[in-house]
Design brief:
CATH architecture of the largest domain: Roll
Order of helices and strands: HEEHEEEHEEEEEHEEEHEEEEH
Number of strands: 17
Largest sheet: 17 strands, mixed
Structural class: alpha+beta
Number of domains: 2
CATH class of the largest domain: Alpha Beta
Shape: globular
Radius of gyration: 18 Å
């Protein structure tokens, strides 16, 4: 980190449907992400700001990815950041397929043409222990108001199906359930409306972040929840505040397809890093 403090810390800014990320490439040199650094970079007034921070490192596959929330906590999965980084690595290597590793496990990305990228986010987990919940119960309809469905995509999700997703005040609704006692590790919260058997409208509150324009793992969890409840088929169009994703729950996992944007490159200056505790 001493070299970083002397020369600065390069970063990339990316987004998937407005779900925005700061990405560090730790392959040329080792980068240590501390909770204090994650919070400082995530400050939208004094840092750069992001929904999640991501680190690329060398791994057993094409790369290993790690993620943090803006409050400094670790995020086990981040679908849109995975898509953004996969697009960057596909362009860098000239490959049309990637093998990525994460805390969640092995993920696979494919170039589907037109600048769009598809990522297999793995199999959903629906057992109460895997989400995790604080006690044994049926995860299809939780015994709380609104009877939401619980799912894990490597991180916990709580999905409410409502008549009009836009009518839900997420800034108060989200934190109420993020910190619900049923979720010992907190949870991401989604509100979704069924438009058609292959079409959902979804909005999201991300744990440790707040309201975001999109969320890949939340989109996967919502699609899985809708299919489990018989509201849709296993392949759906997911309309989010920031745009549209295609979600396809196949036998080998939940595939997520959409556009990404590499916005800019920059360097965190030594003076900024010196103020990080």
């Amino acid at each position: 980190m001493s070299t970083t403090r002397e020369t600065g810390l390069p970063f990339m800014k990316m987004h998937g449907l407005g779900n925005d990320f700061v990405v560090f490439d730790g392959r040329p040199r080792k980068i240590e992400i501390t909770p204090a650094l994650a919070r400082a970079v995530g400050d939208r007034h004094r840092g750069i700001g992001y929904d999640q921070l991501a680190l690329i490192e060398t791994g057993e596959g094409d790369a290993h990815l790690s993620f943090w929330n803006a409050d400094g906590s670790v995020a086990q999965a981040c679908g849109n950041a995975t898509r953004c980084i996969a697009r960057y690595l596909l362009d860098e290597t000239g490959k049309d397929r990637l093998h990525l590793t994460t805390i969640r496990g092995d993920l696979y990305a494919v170039d589907v043409g037109g600048g769009r990228t598809s990522v297999n986010m793995g199999a959903p987990m629906t057992d109460w222990r895997d989400i995790p919940l604080s006690e044994e119960m049926d995860t299809l309809e939780l015994p709380i108001e609104g009877a939401p469905t619980a799912t894990s995509m490597g991180n916990p999700h709580c999905t409410f199906f409502v008549e009009h997703a836009e009518a839900i005040p997420l800034d108060t609704f989200g934190p109420r359930y993020e910190h619900h006692p049923l979720f010992p590790e907190r949870t991401n919260v989604q509100v979704a409306s069924v438009i058609a058997p292959d079409h959902l409208r979804m909005r999201v509150w991300e744990r440790g972040v707040g309201v975001t324009l999109a969320s890949g793992s939340s989109s996967c969890a919502t699609a899985v929840s809708a299919a489990r409840r018989g509201l849709t088929g296993r392949k759906v169009r997911m309309d989010l505040d920031g745009g549209t994703l295609e979600i396809d729950w196949r036998d080998d996992g939940v595939w997520m397809t959409g556009e990404t944007m590499h916005v800019a490159d920059g360097v965190f200056r030594p003076e900024f890093l010196d103020r990080v505790e």
